[in-house]
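Risk mitigation, structural track. In case the binding assays with flavin mononucleotide fail to produce interpretable data, a predicted complex structure has been prepared as a fallback.
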Amino acid sequence: MKLLAFAATNSRNSINRALVEYAANRLKSSFQPDADIEIIDLNDYEMPIYSIDREQETGIPAAARDLFAKIGAADGIIVSFAEHNGLVTAAWKNAFDWMSRIDGKVWQDKPMVMLAASPGPRAGANVLASQEMLTPFFGGEIRGTLGIGTWSEAWDAANSTLLRAEDSAALDETLVKLAA
Ligand SMILES: Cc1cc2nc3c(=O)[nH]c(=O)nc-3n(C[C@H](O)[C@H](O)[C@H](O)COP(=O)(O)O)c2cc1C
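Fallback model:
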């Protein structure tokens, strides 16, 4: 099983990147030892802000095509969404908009687990709710979602691990659905 994992944010010290890396390692070590997991960084897919004029003048950027191809090549996806003002980050929305011009089924019928890490107690509930609602329309097969809130209390940065037993258990429960 070839899995693609990434955080939907362009922040360099991303808490969602920490979570998605942890989740990917956990999936491999506990549930899917033969998984071939590639973790990508959205910063490696920088692209101009979408506009219909830009698309007509210069076409779809190579970075959008490359990212779309990465999704297409995977058997499953783990994505962790940063929440900006209740929604996905501008960087991810932009990449998504460009990719949707290649094919509206951006997620290409892939099974996926959607995570969110947030400094606040709501654990990215808004961004996850919007993605849960929209993802099926864009060809994503959601196997599970999980938000981890109050990140500074949830995460042991020195040891790169989740601190609360209930978060670890919930993550395992979610990941096992992707491995199934
Ligand atoms: C413009 C902006 C808007 C934000 N809005 C929210 C929000 O609506 N909900 C939330 O929980 N955190 C919000 N935050 C805090 C982010 O969750 C926090 O910066 C987090 O580290 C982002 O994830 P990342 O580190 O993976 O990029 C916001 C941060 C920024 C910069």
